[in-house]
Design a protein that fits this description.
By secondary structure, the chain is mostly helical. It has helices at about 10-25, 35-40, 55-65, 80-95, 100-105, 110-125, 130-155, 165-170, 175-180, 185, 190-210. It has a single domain, classed as Tetracycline Repressor, domain 2 (Orthogonal Bundle), CATH 1.10.357. It is flat, with a radius of gyration of 21 Å. Pfam families: TetR_C_1, TetR_N.
Length: about 220
């Protein structure tokens, strides 16, 4: 459920929802005014009062992705709100693994998506982060959350075609000293759920102990 008062028009949402479904099914390259119009059942010209161009449509997909996050309700502490936002973003990336990468490619420029940035600004203000550091802190934190979600869905954390022991075996220990020293730890099964929770807890501690600490 959205916590914001301003929502996009029903027709624009319908168009963008079809564009998002197309991206999920066939990739972002398949998203065009013509293809989306065909899914909606209208001519491409009929889209323009609601989505003015291909670029506007891509901005609209960013808007749809961020404003449909199940944002934490009011009344929660700022750490609970940040943890809830982070988990919501990760779940959205699982639902839309292709389109979600747009959040790395395009700024949040529409009215609704800017309100999500405002949610993060307010969270950091409530944490006691100095106003001069808010914008930088938001970029750092959102980059971690989005980066983890995109990397997980894109396969960056997957085992790949060559297991870790075989990767480090390509070179002798004196050329990969840290890899060989950490071998037993690196070979442990990867629990991304536990790792994500630990990362979020570390970021909350970083906000409290570094960003919001007196300097």
């Amino acid at each position: 459920m959205m916590i914001y008062g301003v929502e996009m028009t029903d027709r624009r949402r319908e168009i963008l929802t079809e564009a998002l479904a197309l991206a999920d099914e066939r990739g972002l390259a398949a998203v065009s005014m013509r293809a989306v119009a065909q899914r909606v059942g209208v001519t491409p010209m009929a889209l323009y009062p609601h989505v003015g161009s291909k670029q506007d449509m891509l901005d609209g997909l960013v808007e749809l992705l961020v404003t449909d996050l199940p944002m934490p309700a009011g009344g929660l502490s700022w750490p609970e709100r940040f943890a809830g936002f982070a988990q919501a973003a990760r779940e959205s990336a699982r639902r839309h693994p292709t389109a979600f990468a747009l959040l790395f490619d395009r700024p949040a420029v529409t009215a609704d998506s800017v309100q999500v940035i405002d949610f993060l600004y307010q969270l950091l203000l409530d944490a006691g982060v100095p106003p001069a550091e808010i914008a930088r802190a938001e970029r750092m934190l959102s980059t971690f959350v989005l980066g983890f979600a995109v990397s997980e869905q894109g396969g960056r954390f997957a085992g790949g075609s060559l297991p870790l022991p075989a990767r480090r075996a390509q070179l002798p220990a004196d050329e990969l000293p840290a890899h060989h020293q950490l071998g037993a730890e690196l070979d442990r099964p990867l629990d991304l759920d536990a790792e994500f929770d630990a990362d979020v807890a570390d970021l909350i501690a970083f906000i409290e102990n570094v960003l919001a600490a007196p300097r």
